[in-house]
Write a structure and sequence with these properties.
By secondary structure, the chain is mostly helical. It is built from 6 helices and 4 strands, in the order αβααββαααβ. It has one domain. A two-stranded antiparallel sheet has the order 1-4.
């Protein structure tokens, strides 16, 4: 019995990072300027999904923003930049390593959770409703309020 208990403890210890990722609630964006400016083109990602250094890099590169131009007045840009960096407070989950190209969908933690499997087949990313791995709300219906619980995810077929 003691051997079984040790084995269960070891397995749970090794699997804990996976379970803790699957049950995350990330504070939803609350800064009005961020919501207004960033949700014009895409989902307003919670700041806790990237490390502070990534948000700094993204906001410092404005007006160039990935493949588009984003024009903000300097006060608004500073306000948003400061808010994103201040609220990127989840280093245990997200880590401090900047993902390639500052893209959430290229972060190690994201790739680990979204591996192709029976529950998440590769065809999901080609679904017309999903369109892209960056469309969090396509599967995580609670994403706009910061809820990314694996138990409530609905993967389109």
């Amino acid at each position: 019995m003691q051997t079984l208990s040790k084995w269960v403890f070891i397995c749970m210890s090794l699997l804990w990072p996976t379970f803790s990722h699957a049950q995350r609630v990330v504070p939803a964006p609350a800064l009005t300027a961020y919501q207004q400016e960033c949700s014009v083109c895409h989902f307003a990602y919670p700041p806790g999904l990237l490390p502070a250094e990534s948000w700094k890099s993204i906001t410092d590169s404005l007006p160039k923003h990935f493949s588009t131009q984003v024009l903000l007045n300097s006060d608004t840009q500073s306000l948003i930049a400061d808010w994103l960096q201040t609220n990127a407070v989840n280093p245990v989950w997200v880590g401090t390593q900047m993902p390639p190209d500052n893209r959430i969908t290229r972060a190690e933690w994201w790739l680990g959770i979204h591996k192709v499997s029976k529950k998440l087949p590769a065809k999901v990313w080609k679904n017309l409703y999903v369109k892209s791995p960056s469309n969090c709300a396509a599967c995580h219906r609670g994403a706009p309020s910061g809820e990314y619980n694996a138990k409530t995810v609905l993967i389109p077929s």
